[in-house]
Write a structure and sequence with these properties.
Blueprint: E1 3-12, E2 16-19, H1 20-23, H2 31-38, E3 42-45, H3 53-68, E4 77-81, H4 92-100, E5 108-112, H5 118-131, E6 138-144, H6 157-160, E7 166-175, E8 181-189, E9 197-198, H7 210-215, H8 230-234, E10 241-242, H9 244-265, E11 275-278, H10 283-293, H11 304-307, H12 314-324, E12 333-340, E13 344-351
Parallel strand pairs: 4-5, 4-6, 11-12
Antiparallel strand pairs: 1-7, 2-3, 6-7, 8-13, 9-10, 12-13
Helix pairs in contact: 3-4, 9-10
Length: 352
């Protein structure tokens, strides 16, 4: 059995920088308010009608493929993680294959919907395929175009100020070097409080979850369904909903737990970590996790200040940036961790 290594990593963020001051023109907020609660100073937005979740993914994937030293048609499997796909269906995996001109029809494409934990889940899936020799070059992608689906009014302020656009990608291959590559991944989920961070309408539930949604204080969805109604528009029901305090409290609990679980399973401890790359949900969450693990600033990579929360793309973007900055070197122990909607959470321990 082989181990799995990250042979190439890359990322892409749009050119347009959107500051907190710019958002304050559309909603009742301030730069100070946003920074105090999230640590975010600015984020990137893609070019409307010119960039999509798929086109950004292609930009990141091209860099990862080049750094892996392979041709695009060497890719024999694609795993695409996103919550903001170009289409309701088909998924972005096949659209990425087309966008990049991957003519290898033997290449499969898998789309996964694990939101902020998407890249960790995708990495774990790819790891199993590589270790068992099913595939040789797996392209793992996390990409998000949040800006096309946010509520730019004061009603949507608490969610909108957090998110940005971007993409990250990695090429995974087999390694015969003992003790190198992905040492372990840990995945968890608990759907008990799914509606506390969710995008309900439009959807196929047709009001099935009315009582469940009412319990969590979600706006009335009596006329919920796949098609947009006037009531959905009037009540701002076609945008994401988040109970920020609930998410924060759960995240600061699960992040350290899943990191320590992964380390313990391979006989390592938090003192062995060279670089921790947490999902960029909120700088205050990352700082709490850092303190709880007793890590120094140089042992944790944060870029939410520049990009906001890019959901499934946040970990590969940060991983790519940290590697480019020379903060991840051969032999380093790298820990990835994420928590997000579902709720799902997970971690990965990698010997670079």
């Amino acid at each position: 059995m082989f181990s799995t290594k990250i042979a190439g990593i890359g990322h892409y963020v749009p050119e347009r920088i959107v500051t907190n001051h710019e958002l304050s023109k559309f909603m009742d907020t301030t730069d100070e308010w946003i920074q105090e609660r999230t640590g975010i100073k600015e984020r990137r937005y893609g070019k409307k009608h010119k960039e999509t979740t798929t086109t950004m993914a292609a930009e990141a994937a091209q860099v990862a493929i080049k750094r892996a030293g392979i041709d695009k048609n060497d890719v024999d499997f694609i795993i695409f993680a996103t919550l903001s796909p170009d289409y309701y269906f088909p998924g972005c995996g096949v659209l990425l294959q087309r966008e990049m001109g991957i003519t290898n029809s033997a290449c499969g494409a898998l789309d996964i919907r694990n939101q902020c934990s998407g890249f960790i889940y995708a990495l774990s899936i790819a790891d199993q395929f590589i270790k068992t020799g099913v595939y040789k070059n797996i392209l793992v992608v996390g990409s998000e175009m949040h800006s096309m689906g946010l509520d730019f009014t004061t009603t949507g302020r608490n969610v909108t100020v957090i998110f940005g656009d971007g993409a990250g990608a990695a090429v995974l291959q087999a390694s015969s070097v003992e003790g190198k590559g992905i040492l372990t991944t840990k995945l968890h989920a608990d759907g008990t409080h799914a509606e506390m961070l969710s995008f309900i309408n439009p959807g196929c539930h047709g009001g099935y979850y009315d009582q469940e949604l009412e319990k969590f204080g979600y706006p009335d969805v009596e006329f919920g369904g796949l098609f947009i109604t006037q009531k959905m528009l009037d009540d701002h029901m076609t945008f994401p909903y988040m109970d920020g305090q609930f998410v924060f409290k759960l995240a600061v609990q699960k992040f350290p737990e899943v990191i320590l679980e992964a380390l313990n399973s391979v006989g390592l401890s938090k003192s062995d970590i060279n670089m921790l790359i947490p999902h960029q949900a909120n700088l205050r969450i990352s700082q709490f996790v850092q303190r709880s693990l007793g890590l120094k600033d140089e042992q944790v990579w944060n870029n939410i200040q520049k990009y906001g929360n890019t959901t499934a793309a946040s970990i590969p973007i940060a991983l790519s940036e940290a590697w480019e900055a020379g903060k991840i070197n051969e032999g380093d122990l790298v820990c990835l961790a994420a928590f997000g909607s579902g709720f799902t959470w997970g971690s990965a321990v990698i010997r670079w």
